[in-house]
# Entry
Amino acid sequence: MDDSSIIAILSAVVGALGIKEIWNIWKKKIDIQAKKDITSLHKEHQILHEVIDEQRNTIEEMTKRIISLEEKIEALIEENKECAIKLARMEERLLANAKNKSTRKRPSTKKAS
# Structure
């Protein structure tokens, strides 16, 4: 083997190793980017779940508040009915009392001449 063939073989081996190293660097870069993408997607997924959970909790809380308010409204309606009945009874007693007082004979307030 002469010097030129050794140099050619050596340059071919060095070239092949260089391509392999470039490929490893490129592969590492792709892997790092993929890890970043997966991490980013995982964080977005986690944030999305947190937002959904917060919304679900808010909806549940609002539902409980609505049910509570509906119960209060029902209680107030019932109380209003009771107050209307009491008011009607009081009016009846007042009218009956006024009628009784007006039918009694009143002493005359005229002055004797």
Q: What stands out?
A: The chain has a mean pLDDT of 86. Helices lie at 3-103. The CA atoms of residues 85 and 101 lie 24 Å apart. The radius of gyration is 48 Å.
